[in-house]
Amino acid sequence: MVLQAIDLLKNEIPLEQETVNLSEDSVTGLVLVDIINGFCTVGAGNLAPREPNRQISEMIKESARVARLFCEKNLPIMAFLDSHHPNKPEDPYPPHCIAGTDESNLVPALTWLEEEGNVTIRRKDCFDGYFGSMEADGSNVFVDWVKLNHIKTLVVVGVCTDICVLDFVCSTISARNRGFLGPLEDVVVYSSACATFDIPPHEVATDDTKQALPHPQEFMHHVGLYMAKERGAKIASQLSFVAAGKA
Ligand SMILES: [Zn+2]
């Protein structure tokens, strides 16, 4: 049997995932990272998929299902939307998700969230939603949201597993460890509602965008989850709610 690079990697850094039971005795918050057209809708921009992609469509389907569940339970949701000023590039990436364009809006499967009372939408102009939540006066919309809602467990989903999802998880866990996040205990990354993009190594030379780094999808998705786990996040392959008093 010939081992593929991905199998070799998974042998070197195996990732154990778990079933995470969310107790209804305490508040769980959901963070949706960048599930927007510019990253997820075919042909929607420089960083959008060029053809239908299974990992991305599964991520959209699963995050919509989880978001619906959180809305039914009236649990707090925060959605980060990458939204850039046209004159402020974000290297090493080409222009993307310019504020005011449809690229920076939620994908069609999630636009209904805009009307839900338990949803906070936060536009951010950097990779990391934690820093993207900072205001000029030093206050932080995400930190305030965690405290105001008494969030004890945070579930994180979205794109890209190894970039904006990972950056947000790293910052959030460091802030929690320093005691900045009040009641927050657990950060859970729900893997089937996360995705990343695909630029196989052989496509880099012919790639006509500024993006020049190879980025094999399954490989980088695995690495992103592994690095989140290295910071202390729980990596969930399944999520379920446990009724109050039963945990
Ligand atoms: Zn961006």
Short synopsis of the structure:
The chain contains seven helices and seven strands, in the order αββααββααβαβαβ.
Structural class: alpha/beta
CATH architectural type: 3-Layer(aba) Sandwich
What separation lies between the terminal Cα atoms?
Answer: 45 Å
Kindly state the number of beta strands. Answer: 7
Oligomer: single chain
Which percent range fits the helix content?
25-40%
Helix tally equals: 7
CA radius of gyration: 18 Å
Order of strands across the biggest sheet? 1-7-6-5-2-3-4
- What is the 3D shape? globular
What are the bound molecules?
zinc ion
Account of the 3D structure:
The chain is α/β, with parallel strands linked by helices and 247 residues long. It has a single domain (15-242), classed as Rossmann fold, CATH 3.40.50.850. Helices cover 30% and strands 21% of the residues. The chain is built from 7 helices and 7 strands. Helix 6 runs parallel beside helix 7. It is globular, with a radius of gyration of 18 Å. The mean pLDDT is 94.
